[in-house]
Amino acid sequence: MFVAIDELLQFYRSPLGRISKRLLQEVMVQMIGGAAGQRVVGLGYCAPYLSRVTQQAERVMAFMPARQGAQVWPADQASCTALVDPSELPLTDSAVDLVIANHLFEFAREPEELMQELWRVTAPGARLVIVVPRRRGLWAQRDNTPFGHGHPFSRNQLHSLLQDHSFTPEVWREALYLPPSNFGPILKAARIFEGLGRFAGPAFAGALVVRARKEMFPAVTRKRRVRQVVKMPGFVPQPAYPVHSNTSQIVQLVKNRTD
Fold it and tell me: 169 with 211: CB under 8 angstroms?
């Protein structure tokens, strides 16, 4: 079940949400390294990250799942937001060069269908950046943030999902080593937590970020949805009152009333 857009907005406006946005933005900027002249799609809830990581892009689209709800983005320009079904994107084949997916895979009912659709809409050699909650991370154990909902992933699970659908993982990063709390001293020491966490290893990371590249050979054949026809029982109309079978009795009753 997707986290509602109101809860996402409330989180990213909180002190913890602003800090986590900054930390994840830095990781994404390092991984992407620029998107000049490229066609970019943010899938899921990527509005807090798109402005910084997609500078000088040819075009940027923010696709948000219909079950989640949408936020107008960007706020000071013409809206680039659309409500979509992630497994049926309104794009032609090989339409985009970069896809950024955040708050998406952990809520996907069928990750395989989602991966096959991403392979369809991405151009040859396109990049895919995914942010998911880390399975054993502290953020996945607490439900006071959007990263504490849905299905978290381990690195092996995400690696298998990408490779099985013709995406080759290139770069892995961990982020959000600070505890998921709005306690002031913890937020002030966020940089210290990040530095110590990267030095100690990924055991305390709350989010997993991967950049993968689309391979040239076709992905797994997409399953066609089978339409199920439900047979409805036949209904026989019935009058509200019983109908007299003897018409002569009805005629005699009418004559008596007229007399």
Answer: yes
- What the chain holds in terms of domains, given with CATH numbers, is 5-214 (3.40.50.150)
Contacts of 236 (CB under 8 A, 6+ apart): none
| pLDDT tens digits along 201-241 | 788 899 999 999 998 776 555 555 555 555 556 655 555 55
- Write the DSSP assignment of 128-158 as a string of letters: EEEEEEBTTSHHHH-SSSGGGSS--B-HHHH
pLDDT computed for residue 200 by the predictor? 80
Q: How far apart are CA 20 and CA 176, in angstroms?
A: 7
Coil, strand or helix at 116: helix
Give the global pTM. 0.82
Closest CA to 177 of 163, 187, 164: 187
